[in-house]
Task: structure prediction
Amino acid sequence: MANSPEDMAQAMINNMPAKTGKSLDEWVTIVKASGLEKHGEMIKLLKGEHGMTHGFANLVAHEARGRVVSAPAPAEDLVAAQYAGPKAGLKPIHDRLVKAVEAFGEDVELAPKKAYVSLRRARQFGLVQPSTKTRLDLGLNLKGVEPSGRLEASGAFNAMCTHRVRLDTVDAIDGEVLGWLRQAYDAAG
Result:
């Protein structure tokens, strides 16, 4: 399954310093200092004077013209929409998982999408998704770990995860679940 456009843009932003020598914000500063206003002129500057590939130049030009790449819908709005209406009762499960993950370290990034929240470190290690009115699914990346009991193979749930744990109450988040979550976090470092 292909990554979403947001995931692909984020991957480019994350790789930009290694591939171009500067962060997205640094490139935006350079473009803005040039005084150029047209998208095509910005791309020409970045490709011609800085040797940037078209993909990175296009990303920087879009960002310089309106910060559309790094400023998606506010995270609170996406999460609120996920737990609106009949799925509202699942929000305490979400909150408990987020609290546990945030305690792992300062390098944890929560990246809300339309249907789920991606859990990231250097790369995605899991996701939290309200799948039905009565169940939240915790997706985990645990390569090489055999599914067993509540730790199921991801199957058709989400191609970005290797495993899934179905959670229907806050109490279902026990030491076993937290151990798997920590294992996925550690492996993503």
Summary: Strands lie at 109-112, 117-120, 124-130, 136-140, 152-153, 163-167. Residues 126 and 140 are 4 Å apart (CA to CA). The chain has a mean pLDDT of 89. Residues 5-66 form one domain.
